[in-house]
Write a structure and sequence with these properties.
- There is one protein chain.
- By secondary structure, the protein is α/β, with parallel strands linked by helices.
- It has one domain: Sugar-phosphate isomerase, RpiB/LacA/LacB (Ribose 5-phosphate Isomerase B, Chain: A, 3-Layer(aba) Sandwich).
- It has a five-stranded parallel β-sheet with strand order 2-1-3-5-4, sandwiched between helices.
- The longest helix is centred in the N-terminal third of the chain and has 14 residues.
- D-ribose (RB5) binds next to helix 3.
């Protein structure tokens, strides 16, 4: 299950991702917004809580730029959120950073590209090895170690 959420800027992109990737077998838990103006940190928190609890394996967040969502998501313990703007970033943030949330900008990307980036992110595994050590160091920072 994938948690997905957006603010008012990202509704069309979120709905397109849900529609197109559901047809490919992905399952989504839609945490809003349904179109009402809202504050993106509220949605970021709701999606990230689903990932942290384990109810959802990954999260997708969309706002105007993707930046506000990524700043908010990365404040949450256990979340490694990546702003994805291109296929290389979407792939390598999974391979190397084991990112569990992707963020995209609805005002900077087209919906077609966003669907493609989400599919890459959701289907690419973590490479482990030396990258795990670096993830552990990030976790140490999170824990003030
Ligand atoms: C909302 O207008 C806009 O500020 C928001 O979607 C996002 O771009 C923030 O980072």
């Amino acid at each position: 299950m994938i948690a997905i959420g957006c603010d008012h800027a990202g509704v069309e992109m979120k709905n397109t991702i849900i529609k197109e990737l559901s047809e490919k077998g992905f399952e989504f838990l839609d945490m809003g917004t349904d179109g009402q103006p809202c504050d993106y940190p509220v949605i970021a928190k709701a999606v990230c809580e689903k990932v942290i609890s384990g109810e959802c394996e990954k999260g997708v967040l969309i706002c105007g730029t993707g930046i506000g969502m990524s700043i908010a998501a990365n404040k949450m313990k256990g979340i490694r959120a990546a702003l994805c703007t291109d296929s290389f970033s979407a792939k390598f943030t999974r391979l190397h950073n084991d990112s569990n949330v992707m963020c995209m900008g609805a005002r900077t990307l087209g919906c077609g590209l966003a669907v493609e980036l989400a599919e890459i992110f959701l289907t690419t595994g973590f490479e482990g090895g030396r990258h795990q050590r670096r993830i552990d160091l990030i976790t140490d920072i999170e824990n003030n170690l």
